[in-house]
Amino acid sequence: MKSIIIGICASFFFAFTFVLNASMELTGGSWIWSASLRYIFMVPFLLCIVIIRKNLRPLLKEMREKPGPWMIWSFVGFGLFYAPLCFAAAYSPGWLIAGTWQITIISGALLAPLFFETVQTKNGPLKVRGKIPYRGLIMSMIIVLGIVLMQMEHAKELSFEILLLGAVPILLASFAYPLGNRKMMDICEGRLDAYQRVLGMTLASLPFWFLLSLYGLFTVGLPSKGQSIQSLLVALFSGVIATVLFFMATDKVRGNMQKLAAVEATQSFEVVFALMGEMIILSIPLPSSFSWIGIFIVIVGMILHSYVSNRRVESFVTTTKGA
């Protein structure tokens, strides 16, 4: 139960991303600065954590040995993830982006054949190519149904072009985030912990954020003091606190697939927290009944998807143990 509570707390802090990005957009802040400042501000926080854990030197050694892959996949995993997400904030409310973002669980499943997974058998570790979890994808259709219902009200108010500008970037981000992070895990091969990987990817993606900042400087000018402060809060709440809490929750249930599924499912509460935050902070109107039903369906779909996916993992491990 404690791990569930910690997971819900993590989703609460993750929701700050969607609320504060919407706030910055409403006050005239450019998505360019919302995206780039978050990662620039994350560096000192993550650097302190890794230095305190005495893990900086191994990270720098890894990055020096393979600078190309670090740059490429950090750009994919962070640059092509967060920049489109901030861009979408100009066209959709934060709670709607948070709900649509849950489609990443489908995107991640479709990427499975691109990677190998290691399974422990009685004859030692066995590498097998990942397979698309079709049963999980069936459960994912529940999530898609919820997203469609959430978008219905929004679609009535906006042109098809504007709707695409809000949805397509999220779709791109949903593939880029798992692809970049999984590629980096393959490159590191377990030599670095999660904190080191996040710091390394943040550092390796800095050239992109600096270039984006330079573009913003010449097109929209410097960010306002308010946007800079809110970007700092996103970096602290979502980039540091939420990530640490989520890792803490998953560490507590490591090895128990059903409990791990329950912890992962808590992240669907981002939709609820983002909606509450926008209603309190930004005074947005209440969503329609269709949207409320959609939110509920997305949460149920996330829980069912995590349960089915992890039952599949347990079944596969049990089978290979007898091989």
Automatic annotation (TrEMBL):
Signal peptide: none annotated. The chain crosses the membrane at residues 31-52, 72-91, 97-116, 136-152, 158-177, 198-217, 229-249, 261-284, 290-308. Keywords: Membrane, Transmembrane, Transmembrane helix. This is Multidrug resistance efflux transporter family protein.
